[in-house]
């Protein structure tokens, strides 16, 4: 088997960053009124700015696939001809531009210079980007491919705009009910951001700069034990099962905002940290790694609310991580779902401060039905 190295990392963020006080100028006011939950959610998540792939007037500026392609092109900014050597494109997202064709082939459509290559599109939510990375990693390890690109991207913003909820609000008014969308829908409007990240994975380290050797990537799912926590294109029923958008009429889809992103906040708070981060201890034991070996800990978190909860869980399980080893860019980039971990790695990869031999532990929880991905990298 070959080794596998991240030899380059790039990102793409659309337009200018949007500060908290300007969010509703982009997202709009539901029923013409400011959100009741905005200040509460922002106070807990402590996000200061984020990016949207459209203008204040609601005009789209980029598609999801286009942003991913721009991140991929960023990998080859210094030598554009090298992109012709890519033989695998592995792309993850939870917000594709369409149900079909696949997200990956739509990105490939923006990259004609790559020629005819293999393309894969892992589905999922936050873990989708890590699944894309693992496919690329395994392909290089097996010497099946020579130069792979893994990418992750999100374009949540169209699903967050006030117009997506207008029919639901009008239906509530007709029924003489409180004309506010429920907290499980409004909650995520103040959390999510648009953008893309990409890695180049090769069988040899970069001779002209830093590389990150991928030591291992491990994942686990608790879907056999837990019901869905975050979902889109479905309605959660009293028994915890999801009713598909396919089983609603067109009128019901609009009236119930079925295609809005929803979060069971109570279930999220109870489960997201305990399940996956308790399991991390057994993964580290199996791999022969201790937290003393780790120099940088990069947890994907949707809110700083979970930072102390993760810290407490790691301490309870005997794998504490000193706070000086933690790194996240949530406050400045927002929660970019599957792309968040790519953006964190890109920032630390290109900062110029990494030293050979240092180890980086990635942790990506996914609340949709409680899946987790962990990865260990070594600087070389």
From TrEMBL:
UniProt source species: Dyadobacter linearis
Keywords from the named record: Acyltransferase, Transferase
Residue span, Beta-ketoacyl-[acyl-carrier-protein] synthase III C-terminal domain: 286-363
SUPFAM superfamilies in the cross-refs: Thiolase-like (SSF53901)
Official protein name in the record: Beta-ketoacyl-[acyl-carrier-protein] synthase III C-terminal domain-containing protein
Pfam families in the cross-refs: ACP_syn_III_C (PF08541)
Entries under InterPro entries matching the protein: ACP_syn_III_C, Thiolase-like
NCBIfam families: PRK06816.1
Top-level taxon of the source organism: Bacteria
């Amino acid at each position: 088997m070959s080794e596998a190295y991240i030899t380059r990392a790039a990102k793409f963020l659309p337009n200018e960053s949007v500060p908290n006080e300007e969010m509703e100028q982009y997202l709009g006011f539901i029923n013409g009124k400011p959100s009741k939950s905005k200040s509460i959610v922002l106070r807990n998540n402590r996000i200061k700015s984020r990016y949207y792939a459209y203008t204040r007037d609601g005009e789209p500026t980029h598609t999801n696939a286009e942003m991913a392609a721009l991140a991929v092109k960023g990998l080859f900014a210094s030598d554009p001809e090298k992109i012709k050597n890519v033989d695998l494109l592995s792309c993850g997202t939870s917000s594709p531009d369409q149900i079909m064709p696949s997200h990956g082939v739509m990105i490939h459509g923006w990259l004609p210079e790559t020629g005819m290559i293999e393309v894969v599109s892992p589905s999922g939510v936050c873990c989708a980007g890590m699944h894309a990375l693992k496919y690329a990693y395994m392909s290089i390890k097996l010497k099946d491919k020579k130069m792979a690109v893994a990418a992750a991207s999100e374009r949540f913003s169209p699903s967050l705009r006030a117009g997506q909820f207008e029919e639901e609000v009008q239906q509530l008014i007709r029924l003489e009910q409180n004309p506010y969308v429920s907290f499980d829908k409004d909650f995520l409007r103040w959390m999510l951001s648009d953008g893309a990240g990409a890695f180049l994975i090769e069988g040899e380290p970069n001779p002209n700069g830093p590389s990150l050797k991928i030591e291992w990537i491990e994942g686990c799912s608790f879907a056999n034990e837990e019901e869905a926590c975050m979902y889109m294109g479905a309605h959660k029923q009293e028994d915890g099962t999801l009713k598909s958008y396919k089983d609603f009429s067109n009128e019901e889809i609009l009236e119930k905002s079925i295609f809005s992103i929803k979060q069971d906040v109570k279930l999220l708070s109870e489960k997201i940290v305990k399940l996956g981060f308790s399991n991390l201890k057994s993964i580290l034991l199996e791999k022969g790694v201790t937290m003393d070996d780790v120099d940088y800990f990069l947890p994907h978190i949707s809110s700083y609310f979970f930072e102390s909860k993760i810290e407490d869980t790691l301490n309870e399980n005997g794998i504490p991580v000193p706070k000086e080893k933690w790194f996240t860019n949530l406050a400045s980039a927002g929660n970019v779902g599957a792309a968040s971990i790519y953006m964190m790695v890109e920032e630390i990869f290109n900062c110029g401060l990494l030293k050979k031999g240092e180890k980086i532990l990635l942790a990506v929880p996914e609340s949709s039905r409680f899946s987790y991905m962990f990865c260990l990298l070594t600087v070389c």
